[in-house]
Amino acid sequence: MKTFVWLAVIILLGMILRTFYLVTPTVDSDQAVFGLMAMHILKGEFPLIQWGFPYMSSGESFFAAPFFYFLGASPFTLDLAIAIESLIFVWLIFFVGRRIGGSQMGLLSALYVAIPPSYLAIHCVLARGAYIETLILGTLAFWMALRIFYPEGGKDRGPLSYFLLGTAFGLGLWFHFLIIFFMVPIGFFFLIKPKTLFRKEISLLVLGFLLGSLPFWVHNFYHGFEGIAYLSRHEKRHHTFWQGLSQYVGRDLCIILGMFRDHIQTALTWVNVPFIILYAAFLVYGWGQWLKSFFHKEPLKGIGLVLIFLLFYILIVDESEYIEKDTRRYYVPLFAGLPLLWAWVVQSWSRRSRVLKISLVSAFLFFHLFTNFREAAVFHPDSFKPYQEKVRKEKELIHFLEEKNLRQINYEDYWLGFRLNFIAQEKIIFARTFYERYRPYEDILERSDHPVFLDGASQKFGPLFKIIGGSCEENRVGDWSVYHDFVEPQGRYRQVNLQNAHVSASDRTEEAKYVLDRDAETAWTSGRPRSPGMWVQIDLGRTYSLGLLRLWDRPHHFRDTALQVSVQVSLNGEEWKEVIPPTRGDFYYWNGPRIYGWELGYRSEARLGPVQARFIRITGHEADSQHPWMIYEIFVYEHVGEERNVKDQPRVIQAIQELKLEKVYADRWLSSKIKEDTQGKVQTVEPFSYPHFYGEMPSRLIEWGPHVGFAVEDADAEQFEKEAQQEGFNLSRRDCGRWSLFYFSHWGGEEEEMGKVPSFWWTGFGILKTNRKLRSEYLGIRARKYAEKGDWASALRYDEKALERYSNHQGVRWELIQVLEKLGRLDEAQEQLEELKWQTEPREKMPILFEKGVEFLGFSIESHEAHTGQTLPIYYYWRLNQDPGSGMGVFVHLKGPGPLIQGDHKFLDRNMKVWPALEGEIFYEEELLKIPEVTPPGQYEIWLGLFDLGTERRWKVKKTELKENQGAVFVGRIQVK
Known about the structure:
By secondary structure, the chain is an alpha+beta fold.
């Protein structure tokens, strides 16, 4: 009874310590998510997984929901719920310590975690991703495992122990994958104690695991097993074992034990070394005593499981990439083992000296209290006052928004949005302008006709409106600028057909044509870092009344987009008028009646006038030492009137319903209205997407079909119709005021065949050709069908189109040769045959099969003799049997009498797309090998291989008859003169 009184006192002390942090409850957006989910639970929702993170449960939210019900939802009650929950861990670790070393050890273990280092104390009052729950479940698993491995009574190895162990593992899988740190060492003990494994009770362990993890499996079953997919992700580590161990001991362990401060990572030098030595001594002593006990008849019970847990922990972490990412929160489960080791050693040493015991306990408690005093803001006016000021400003902001009836707020700072949603109790909705973690928030803002933008900087939209037109109101509230009541610019436009326009540029003018080719895979680039004065110029061919200019860029090149530009126009190409002065813009644009936030390079725009002009020049004014200027597509619009009408949207919805369309491609605003008005019955595809997944979203690739429609604004309708007809799609058109709806009134024949190849990209105001290989493959199939009918002229036309789309399509080129022979054009057939041989047959055949199915076929070189200072072009030939992934490099080493000459390069770096590879496709790449001026003459051997660009690990050679050494293969010689 006395023991449990002391345990109650320890738990009370733990709660008092946590109260110091609750005075200033910290809730950032990561933590606010759990509070928001708890609020939704009280409204009747039953979320199983945390919003946006499929590897983490909603358990903390269910625990916090009752606190919200009785005390109200606030940062304080959220942190209070976690603080009280953390006391369960104190209680459980007492029983584990008592099982290992008796009641005294149990109390010492509980005291350690009740008054812990500041890093653990902070996590004991934060809803931060199931770390406390993992500690609780892991400690419960330890308790049950000790009952099974070291039974003290007849019931210890009974059904309850096995069932609770399985349940702890199952719930742990649902809560967080960090439970693996407990499953591995306990699983290891089952292997070395097979009598505990081959018992009938093991079925109860499996049953408990299945029941405990049931929420995890249910969610994954209904959500495409996204949690399993996340679990299977594993990035390659870029450190050696010893580098990881050094970082773990020298920094990470010091931080979680309170010796370093996490946010500034500076050491408390006067205690750092002694405490590191003490912990090391505890570990060495523990291992020594445990191993020593094996020479006796009765090995030490229990502490071995703790030691194995600590060992496996660092092995697992070191093998992952997390040790490189400063994710120290993943070390929190270590506190299921460290207090037990500390308590066991203190108890062992205290048998020899009571003074030593008192000294160790006092030293650690004093240090833990000191680290908490150092971290808790309530003790530091320089931290407490800014906290109060921050809370005051946030309340002031929310009050202003409520007073102005501004309810849907766009923001860009993730760490602000969910926090403000929680503080505002969702009476005001804050959502990011891209990749919102909780998609319903984003949907609410997408449908809003009265968007509000929140920004930490002032006067953001003022300069922007000089470019995109329009206006808004701006208010400065606390640290934020609030932009609202936007008024769109007046003006009606029509897209200019630029098929016969001419483009020039200050740099690489031969590539400037790509900005008008309506191809999503080609772009103009300056080829050098951006500098003021770079320009791109378009000759429209005749004079227009110009009103609007749009630029479209692929998001993964958004750093190559110049935002500070000016626009000049001219009637004759000599006398220029500046219509847009040098202004810093941003990725904001008007769509429908409202403005939208940036989409990481999706599009930018400028309104010009109207102004009469034939020539347009876009000039960049940025200096960037790293990134070039890149433009994928330019769209030019003529001004055709002032009147704008947004009330035509119901006409579009009515037409969609009358035509029974099932999927509609539309821009952002209209897409949101279609989804809202049809209650999601009509699938919409808008061009907006988060760039991390941009290249992996087939929904943005147009899938043609009988119930597919395209809704475009009248400004783009005429040009869209022409481009679709040029590609062979005969679309019907229904004008609905500001919008035009395109659809197939008849479906079949060529349209049906073309619909099998989604090789066009939806931009919102038109279509861009993309995936040249698939398009080329389709055109090749059409050519073969005409050839089967004996229509050689049509077969020739489609083969030429196929090679125009993708010149490396060797199958089509071979068929073209046969068609030319049938038509009696033998000279042209011979030319195509020579080209085919050049594309597929290296002069030096050197077959090598590497791992991942990558074949090196050989290389072509003009001469095996070279002079010092010469740049030697070499063509390398490859075939891929499967997708090798990205990050593959080729090393080329010349070894001879002088220093090593390297021709290392990224694999197929200049090819826009290499996958999917067409059947039998062979790739060749041209690389330039520089022979340095100081190279001694003589004969040099060429060694070639593949390596990982991230880790620099050489790829294994699977098969070759050539000389090979550690992944490098000898492929030839060069004589340097």
